[in-house]
């Protein structure tokens, strides 16, 4: 059940979600990350494809924000609401702690 469940504090997400639940890449990651930093966001879920774009970010941002790569809506729901789906049983701890 999703209704009435507040998301974790201090976490944001950017990406496009398809009807099948896949997370597509986005543009403007640098600008979105700078805005998130200004409002004290500590974790940002980003499309896996955009991990390469982190090279463009200032070191200060990379030191203060944890960027978590996601590929599916199930992963987003796990990180934001701690809702676990059967398909997530295989998600590695490495991904959960991914920090650049």
Strand order of the largest sheet: 1-4-5
The name of the CATH topology is Ribosomal Protein S5, domain 2
CATH architecture: 2-Layer Sandwich
* Main pleated-sheet profile: 3 strands, parallel
Q: Any low-confidence stretches, pLDDT <50, length ≥5?
A: 87-94
In the CATH scheme, the class would be Alpha Beta
The domain count comes to: 1
- Provide the helix percentage: 25-40%
- What separation lies between the terminal Cα atoms? 32 Å
H/E element order: EEEHEHEHH
Structural class: alpha/beta
Beta-strand content bin: 15-25%
Mean of residue pLDDT values: 86
Which of globular, elongated, flat, extended, rod-shaped describes the shape? globular
Count of helical segments? 4
Roughly how many Å is the radius of gyration?
13 Å
Task: State the main characteristics.
100 residues; alpha/beta; Ribosomal Protein S5, domain 2; 3-stranded parallel beta sheet; two-stranded antiparallel ribbon; 4 helices
Walk me through this protein's architecture.
With 100 residues, the chain is of the alpha/beta class. The protein has one domain (11-96): Ribosomal Protein S5, domain 2 (2-Layer Sandwich). Helix content is 29%, strand content 17%. Strands 1-4-5 form a three-stranded parallel sheet. Strands 2-3 form a two-stranded antiparallel sheet.
What's the gist of this structure?
This protein has 100 residues and is an alpha/beta fold.
Q: What's the layout of helices and strands?
A:
Blueprint: E1 11-13, E2 16-17, E3 23-24, H1 29-38, E4 43-47, H2 59-64, E5 66-70, H3 73-81, H4 93-96
Parallel strand pairs: 1-4, 4-5
Antiparallel strand pairs: 2-3
